[in-house]
Structure to design on (126 residues):
């Protein structure tokens, strides 16, 4: 199971940032980033909000950072509580990940060299 540290490392690597660069962006030390990524320490809510803002272009949520499960709260509602308006944007916009698994795949895909991306797309039949 992916941990917060695993998800943070993946996000950091999508930008090709070192731990030091991410620490600079968040106003913490490289050692703090290392402790988060290895699971020795967990960041507080304020820091999670800063991470969410820093990676806003990747549509991550606090739920994704916290437990990796629910990316969009409306999709977690029972079918009786969902509305067309609350669910439709997530199913029709191809630019937005629809689950934490889909986001994880996208983030990992972005870290691959261009040739490997093309090979993977070919393998998947795209």
């Amino acid at each position: 199971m992916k941990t917060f540290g695993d998800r943070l490392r993946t996000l950091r690597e999508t930008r090709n940032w070192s731990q030091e660069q991410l620490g600079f962006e968040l106003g913490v030390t490289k050692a703090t980033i290392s402790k988060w990524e290895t699971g020795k320490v967990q960041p507080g809510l304020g820091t999670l909000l800063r991470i969410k803002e820093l990676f806003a272009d990747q549509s991550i949520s606090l739920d994704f950072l916290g437990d990796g499960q629910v990316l969009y709260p409306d999709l977690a509602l029972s079918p009786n509580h969902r509305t067309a308006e609350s669910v439709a944007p997530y199913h029709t916009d191809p630019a937005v990940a629809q689950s934490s698994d889909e986001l994880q795949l996208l983030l990992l895909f972005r870290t691959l060299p261009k040739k490997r991306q093309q090979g993977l797309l070919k393998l998947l039949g795209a």
User: Anything to note?
Assistant: The chain has nine helices and no strands. The chain has a mean pLDDT of 76.
